[in-house]
From TrEMBL:
It comes from the Bacteria. It comes from Mucilaginibacter lappiensis. This is DUF5007 domain-containing protein. The lineage of its organism: Bacteria, Pseudomonadati, Bacteroidota, Sphingobacteriia, Sphingobacteriales.
Length: 331
């Protein structure tokens, strides 16, 4: 009897293994634990934004994503109407090349305006996209349901997404991306300089259109320097000039600009602007030649006044930048 038992047990194991191996398995996998890594996802209102995608937790690719409802988290109220409205936004139709796309005409040829929702969900990855139109939405925390589908089937994930739509500035300047500075540089010897007091800076978004930055420089008494008369120019880099070249200025970031008696006006076709730094973060450098300025504590005719401020625009519109020295006067 024992001998028969030893024979039957291996046979039973073989049958079980064979039965399991031959059993038909399901196609693919759709995890019940798909999720976003961040919750809530912070979205700055009005800025171009792209979140990380969904963590599929091993879900078979590809999968498709569809929003069922948006909710106001504080009240639980469905707010689909709020997120279904569309607004005009400029989008690229071709690759932007700063080396060849040097005029507004060339740049605009690669841009078109379409109407899109201010917040949308990428149907392939679940990434949350935000754009300029989000300025029209109330700040607050929102949630949404997703229907996710792949070869396995379809599953609804209630309130899987949670994002915080936050008011923010439409630009960055001091102190977030840099600081103002003021340097007196000796005429004829760019390597010799005297550091002055940091100038005052105000940046204001004054209108929704057109897309321009108006820059004004004024002395400690409130007198504006005149770029039309050459009282404001681009600043050369230190050392032997004209090589190395000029430090970055808005004249280098856009080829479309003009001067008035008290301002330099720079047109920009897209945001963020500048799109990329020319090599020294987003600092803008300008110079007031020595014949137009009296520097406190220094003899006239020996030093130029060199001013710097940082700026990066995230939302289209018209901006006014005013930089004021506190220790120099118009000559």
């Amino acid at each position: 009897m024992k001998r028969n038992l030893f024979i039957y047990i291996p046979l039973l194991i073989i049958c079980l293994v064979t039965s399991y191996a031959c059993k038909k398995t399901g196609t693919g996998f759709l995890s019940p634990y798909i999720h976003y890594e961040q919750s809530p996802i912070i979205i700055p209102k009005g800025r171009a934004f792209l979140s990380a995608g969904l963590n599929g937790d091993g879900t078979s690719q590809p999968f498709s994503v569809k929003v069922i409802h948006f909710y106001d988290k504080a009240t639980g109220k469905i707010v689909d109407d709020l997120f279904s409205k569309t607004y005009p936004v400029s989008v690229w139709t071709g690759l932007y090349d700063p080396k060849t796309d040097t005029t507004l005409q060339l740049i605009n040829a690669k841009l078109k305006t379409i109407n899109v929702a201010p917040i949308s969900i990428n149907p392939s990855s679940g990434q949350i996209l935000g754009n300029y139109g989000a300025l029209q939405l109330p700040a607050g925390e929102y949630q949404f349901d997703l229907e996710i589908k792949n070869e396995t089937g379809t599953k609804v994930y209630p309130k899987i997404g949670d994002f915080l739509l936050r008011d923010t500035t439409t630009f960055e300047s001091i102190p977030t991306i840099g600081s103002t500075s003021e340097t007196r540089i000796m005429v004829g010897n760019e390597s010799k300089s005297v550091v002055g007091k940091p100038p005052l800076l105000t940046v204001t978004r004054v209108a929704d259109t057109p897309n321009v930055i108006t820059v004004k420089y004024k002395d400690k008494n409130g007198v504006f320097f005149n770029p039309k008369k050459g009282e404001i120019i681009s600043r050369p880099a230190a050392g032997l000039n004209p090589n190395p070249p000029y430090l970055q200025s808005l004249q280098q970031y856009t080829k479309s600009y003009y001067y008035t008696d008290d301002a330099s006006v720079f047109r920009f076709p897209f945001t963020p602007f500048p799109l990329n730094t020319l090599g020294n973060q987003f600092n803008i450098y300008q110079r007031i030649p020595t014949q137009f300025v009296h520097n406190d504590g220094l003899p006239d005719g020996m030093y130029s006044l060199n001013l710097r401020f940082p700026i990066r625009i995230y939302v289209p519109g018209s901006y006014l930048v005013v930089e004021q020295t506190i220790d120099a006067a118009h000559n």
